[in-house]
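Hi P.,

Sorry for the delay on this. The queue was packed all week, but I finally got your sequence through. Input first:
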Amino acid sequence: MTRRPPGTPYRTTGDPTGAVAGRARTLRALHRPGEPLVLPNIWDGASARIVQDAGCPVAATSSAAVAEALGYRDGEATPVGEMLDAIARIAAAVTIPVTADLERGYGLAPAELVERLAAAGAAGCNLEDSDPRTGKLVDADEQAAYLEAVRTAGRRAGLDLVVNARVDTYLAGTGTPADRLAEAVRRARLYLAAGADCVYPILATDPEAIATLVGESGGPVNILYRPATPPMPSLADLARLGVARVSFGAGLHRAVQVHLTRMVTDINAGRSPYAAPA
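Then the structure:
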């Protein structure tokens, strides 16, 4: 068997530009407010095949889940080459479009980010507006310029990658809930005007806030579905609120790790890990 030289990207096709462009068109068309694209986020080829076999139209990575599977922590601690190799293996394992969580871009210039992401076979990406090193929000105008540069690089390359712009005001912002909502709307408008296809105000869970984000952002909105108190809206409720995309982030990977921990604990205690819980 021919071995892939270290650092050489995996490719899913002999014509990566044409294949990625087609998948990007498919991915973009699936962002329909009120009929959300639901993404059970994955972390390797096996989990990607599970979502494909279940009938999901897109495989979306979680940066935290991929990092943990590779033995790193989240927050751009994974070497960029290893992250892109993992994305490429995922893209090679399925025929559906893949969108990749790239945190804040791992320090890559926009043109290089687009080129390397396309070489990995991904049709879209998440880019967040807080600095993983400091945990602080990046200046909104600076982030908008970065998103615009990524989108422009994609178009120039004939790829037109789908950009999901994460808005971190609920994660890293300050002020009252009303202040964070207002800033989330302001940033969402900026990012959509810069060319983002969708905005992702992560950790927004209140139905009224989600309705405001959907109504005032001016474009498709992605919501993270997660355990919350009080419970966040159901998938059906999110559809009624006009959400266009729903992600699960690292939640599924963490649930799998909890289940694995229980099984290993049973084994170490001399019990069958396959027995139904008492």
